Amino acid sequence: MSAPMLPPQKQKQAADRDLAGRLARGIAALLGPDWHRLHYGVAVSGGPDSMALLWLMTSLLPGQVWAATVDHGLRKGSDDEARMVAGFCAREHIPHSTLAPPAPIIGSQQAAARAERYRLLEQWRAANALDHIVTAHHADDQLETIVMRLNRSSGVGGLAAIRAKNGLILRPLLDWRRSELVEVALDNDLPFVDDPSNSNDRFDRARLRHALRSQTALDPVAAAKSAAWLAEADEALDWAVERLIASWPDASDIAVIRDDGYPPEMFRRIVAQRLRANAPQLVLRGASLDGVIAAMHEGRRAMVGELLIDAVRGLEGTIWRISAAPRRKARK
């Protein structure tokens, strides 16, 4: 016998509960059983995905959710979008802030804007004593990132793509489709806008997004699961490397690099870890890291930023030492 059909409004309430429950399970998987005691800041651009996330979060945790919109001022109309979100939050009694960079964005526009966005959100989170920032990245975003990383010859860490948890940033929607979030926004009459830069072919991601929407061979949800497993593999490799280095007789000397015939991926991580220990701001990966390792194995001095790597005499090919490069004399 089929279940009795609910009246439309009760059907909608049951659907909303199911969606909120799904989000709750996603957050609990990231934070554990005390997730519901915490306070969250939701990053809301005004798009349908972030508006749906805000709606679900406030339905799930009323009184424990704040919202913030970052307006970089990079395009006409972005201030109107921020005001739309602020107006919605005022009507729903959700604390909201509009954040703006103190200076114009320079350099690679999308990369610089992303870095500034997370800096502003972290500053806002700390000022409001919130436990986590939550963003609306979803499975379609994850697939785009994976394909972009494939085109850049990324390894395990790169193909793990967008992490579900990165410090205090949570992304609990990575197994949701964008279409599901649009449906949440439409079903609940949420206001939203489409960022025109999402369809601007001047940007690599926008061109890729357009291509992926017209294909059916790649399943975004399956790709997101693969990325999650790759993230676990990446963490496992880092865990193994930390314990391997700890087993060295001179482990406490951060200038030492050893190679006892380790697999290439393990040795890459050893070199990267030791370089970061000496220069925490240093980021070296991919072809640049492989070039350094090739020089080491060929017995040549390798220079990385302000660091030098030299083989220990008599132990070439097995032990190297990191030292500070001599300062260049200022030109007169």
UniProtKB/TrEMBL annotation:
Gene3D superfamilies: HUPs (3.40.50.620). The N-terminal region contains the highly conserved SGGXDS motif, predicted to be a P-loop motif involved in ATP binding. This is tRNA(Ile)-lysidine synthase. Its main location: cytoplasm. GO terms for cellular component: cytoplasm. Its EC number is 6.3.4.19. ATP binds at S45, G46, G47, P48, D49, S50. The gene is tilS. The keyword Transcription does not apply. Belongs to the tRNA(Ile)-lysidine synthase family. GO terms for molecular function: ATP binding; tRNA(Ile)-lysidine synthase activity. Ligates lysine onto the cytidine present at position 34 of the AUA codon-specific tRNA(Ile) that contains the anticodon CAU, in an ATP-dependent manner. Cytidine is converted to lysidine, thus changing the amino acid specificity of the tRNA from methionine to isoleucine. The keyword Cytoplasm applies. Pfam families: ATP_bind_3 (PF01171). It is found in: Cytoplasm. InterPro entries: Rossmann-like_a/b/a_fold (IPR014729), TilS/TtcA_N (IPR011063), tRNA_Ile_lys_synt (IPR012094), tRNA_Ile_lys_synt_N (IPR012795). PANTHER family: TRNA(ILE)-LYSIDINE SYNTHASE-RELATED (PTHR43033). It comes from the Bacteria.
